[in-house]
Backbone:
């Protein structure tokens, strides 16, 4: 359980999150993931990083139970900072990051995948931001990197999900494969990238980030300000208390 790393082939580092049962990460888990991705990117022997997860789903966002146990706002602030740290680590990784997604990719999972350079997904993968159902906001910045603007807004307001096949049609998922072939497909793409010159691939990553039209770090932190406002006003707790109970706040 936790974050682990492996080097299955020349130039490729795999960073894997394992937080049963659904990969909802605690505050420290987000920072551990960020540290592992940054360490991989800084290693001169690494030319591509694969971001993966164990279990039935890739990522279910933050650990809501951890937030509920906190009578104040320290857990929320910690989750905000942890998510921002992990999302930035993926985006700013000095080499390309390939996300390998199975099952659910929700909330913070969208932040990770939306900031990755390429996405390989299982045919059972679903992507979405159920934030409004959980008393939170955020990661629209990253969902907008996966789907067109109006679809992003509709998905955000409704908390609906989209499939890997739909994202493949939009061009944001590179390949959809059976679950049994996910690891192999992700490693195959990573190995192809890793065959490039190490210095040149790092320059390419910096150049592509430099021409992005949106400052993803600033945009996401702007969104998080409204998450905290919802918490201070009591709105977040009111909505969060209905989560999983089939109630409308």
Residues:
């Amino acid at each position: 359980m936790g974050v682990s790393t492996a080097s299955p082939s020349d130039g490729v580092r795999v960073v894997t999150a394992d937080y049963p049962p659904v990969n909802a990460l605690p505050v420290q888990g987000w920072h551990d993931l960020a540290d592992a991705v940054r360490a991989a990117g800084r290693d001169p022997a690494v030319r591509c990083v694969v971001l993966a997860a164990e279990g039935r789903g890739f990522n279910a966002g933050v650990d809501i139970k951890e937030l509920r146990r906190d009578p104040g706002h320290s857990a929320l602030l910690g989750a905000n900072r942890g998510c921002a740290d992990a999302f930035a680590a993926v985006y700013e990784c000095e080499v390309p990051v390939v996300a390998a997604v199975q099952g659910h990719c929700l909330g913070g999972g969208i932040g990770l995948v939306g900031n990755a350079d390429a996405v390989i997904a299982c045919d059972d993968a679903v992507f979405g931001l159920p934030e409004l159902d959980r008393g939170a906001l955020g990661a629209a910045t990253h969902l907008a990197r996966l789907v067109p603007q109006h679809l992003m807004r509709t998905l955000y307001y409704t908390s609906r999900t989209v499939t890997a096949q739909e994202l493949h049609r939009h061009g944001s998922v590179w390949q959809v494969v059976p679950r049994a072939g996910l690891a192999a497909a992700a490693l195959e793409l990573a190995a192809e990238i890793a065959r490039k010159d190490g210095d040149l691939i790092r320059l390419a990553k910096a150049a592509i980030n430099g021409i992005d039209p949106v400052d993803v770090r600033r945009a996401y932190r702007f969104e998080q300000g409204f998450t905290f406002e919802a918490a201070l006003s009591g709105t977040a707790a009111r909505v969060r208390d209905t989560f999983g109970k089939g109630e409308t706040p």
User: Anything to note?
Assistant: The chain is about 50% helix and 15% strand.
